[in-house]
Design goal:
about 160 residues; alpha+beta; 5-stranded mixed β-barrel; 5-stranded antiparallel beta sheet; about 15% helix; about 40% strand; globular
């Protein structure tokens, strides 16, 4: 009886740990994530609340195979979670930015939220959901992504 109980606890622990480890890496389109431990096109992916300052990316599309191409090649940050097995899958990531906030490019993070100072800082003046029309931004200054359709209107930060 004691041996059976030990086996049940061990199996339950295994599946419990596996659930929590894979749940963080298993991101869906629309989820917000952070990346760490990047090595080439692989990284540790953690799913976070989109309001979390560490959630620097939003999943635009999930591809079934790591060899598949994201829409608009070169536009999205492409990464395969390190927890995926074999060819696994690939995430097509776009920045998770908030209207009125300032950002700076940050290696491995994409864009880090910060103060509106410096020549490399920019401010998100408007977020337009369901549109890729940069003409809606002053001077057509911005970034747009087709999946999901979103446009970020940008302006230089105050110097």
């Amino acid at each position: 009886m004691l041996v059976l109980l030990a086996i049940v606890v061990a199996v339950g622990g295994f599946f419990g740990i596996r659930y929590f480890v894979t749940n963080n890496a298993a991101a869906s389109a629309g989820d917000c994530v952070s990346l760490s431990g990047q090595n080439n096109d692989r990284a540790d992916v953690q799913t976070l609340d989109c309001g979390d300052d560490k959630a620097s990316f939003k999943v635009g599309k999930v591809l079934d195979q790591a060899e598949s191409m994201c829409p608009e090649e070169g536009l999205y940050t492409e990464v395969s979670p390190t927890s995926s097995v074999g060819d696994g899958y690939k995430l097509c990531l776009l920045p998770n930015m908030v209207e009125g906030a300032c950002y700076k490019p940050d290696e491995g993070v994409g864009f880090a939220k910060g103060e509106c100072v410096g020549t490399d800082a920019f401010k998100v003046t408007k977020v337009i959901n369901d549109s890729t029309d940069l003409a809606q931004c002053p001077d057509s200054a911005g970034m747009s992504y087709p999946e999901p359709a979103i446009t970020y209107c940008l302006a230089p930060a105050e110097l």
